[in-house]
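Study this one:
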Amino acid sequence: MIEAIRNAFKIPDLRKKILFTLIIIAIYRLGAQIPVPGVKIADIQRLFTQGGGVFNFLDLFSGGALSRFAVFALGIMPYITAAIIMELLAVVVPTIEKWQKEGDVGQKKITQVTRYMTLGLAVIESIGYTLLFQGLLKIQFTVLERYLIIMTLTAGTVLVMWLGELITQRGIGNGMSLIIFISIVSRVPSGISRTFQVVSPLILVIFIIMTIVVIVSIVITEKGQRRISVQYAKRVVGRKMYGGTSTYIPLKINSAGVMPIIFATSLLIFPATLANMYPAPFTRALQAALGSSGSFYRILILAALIIFFTYFYTAIVFNPIDISDNVKKYGGFVPGVRPGKPTAVYLNKVLNRITLPGAFFLASIALLPEVFGGKFNIPFWQNFGGTSVLILVGVALETMIQLETQLLQRHYEGFLK
């Protein structure tokens, strides 16, 4: 590993990309420390301490910026939300679906629309947070202060989006995911420190073993795939023969990634948010049933939602009909399956079968750390859970593969041996 890192810095182009990425990350962390004007950080942090899992979950993906009401308090989440909305709209809006099939030109149009949508979502979320904190803290901002806070948060979101695109274009790539990665990693040292302070040696051993098991399971599942063999027929064009090769279609066990957990968790924290905004016996009871970590109803509903969203999101990101049409267009076929619609039916059948263990895996990753963290009072698992670890491991694997490719292209030994 040390030799691979040394080799990476020997390559001038790769060294510049790594250093540029580190500079952008430093700028992002600086913006997460500077509070917006007109607020008291102590009051905001006390609110997050009393608010429990709702605010902690929102604060996790901003790297602690939301608990300080910093310039980058909204983080990259408005952009992620806009990108998810565009993916969902592609299923029902023919124009967006057409853009997806136009290559780089269509992707530029989708990116442009996503940016404008991010700006709109940032304005809406800025107004929402300003009014929410004003009500919960029982303070009254002036019109000028409200306008200044909203403009600052919106500009911060646009700047974060730009920083992520810079990492993608001029850095080591995968910019948006790296920003989320850094946001979560920035909270890990404090979580580990609190865990070592409050747990007994036996619980500490259980925590370490569970962490290793979860990370290894995520790596195995993220790399696991079912390969569907595809054979291309030979064809003669003039005096040259083309085709006759074989390849495969990789179907991942977990094609949906971490999105099902985020969708399901977001739905479950809605009752707690509602209870904070509109305290009433019904909302308090709903918060007690679904908001307490490790409760039976929360575990049951969260597992069901994760399984449902796994199938839902997999159906969006993987279209068997398009895959089968592309295979047929280039003269390919799956051995033993007729081209066209039968191939799409076959791919869909295989995908449904391998998605089931992937869905149960996601549910277990989301629930087991939460259950054990609440039972053994492990602060790290209570604050982070399996969702954060899944994101960290997934982004780390993607980044390592990109650096690996850069090294192997220049005949250096890579990270993964």
Observations:
- The two ends are 9 Å apart (CA to CA).
